[in-house]
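Example record used in the benchmark description.
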Amino acid sequence: MKFVIQRVTHASVTVDGETVGSIGKGFMVLIGVAGDDTRETADKLMHKLLGLRIFDDENGKTNLSLSDVNGELLLISQFTLYADCKHGFRPSFIKAGSPALANELYEYIVSECSKHFHTEKGIFGADMKVELLNDGPFTIILDSEQM
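Model output (structure tokens):
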């Protein structure tokens, strides 16, 4: 599983010209699911995500967490995080989880995160347009294979 976390001032996702999710200060997270991922994998990454201290404190140090700044979450499913570009110019997505597995784990992550923070989401499988103002810029990648 992979999370691409961007610290944002605001972010939104639009489908067919309609905004389906929008947040202020917080994290916009792209979520990629691999074929062998489980809820335990998701729990491990969510624990790290929700505890990350990457907001500035009063001294300008990245020392505050999402809860410290009353932050919000925008979670977006993104199978292309598992693109394999080693051969040729057309990416392979063979390592990405099946749509059924990916959607189940994505909805699980949304549900669990919603218990702790205001959480918005995209629409699984839709053609989404994502807008954000990356604050920093600050982007972190969590990969379950490296944890």
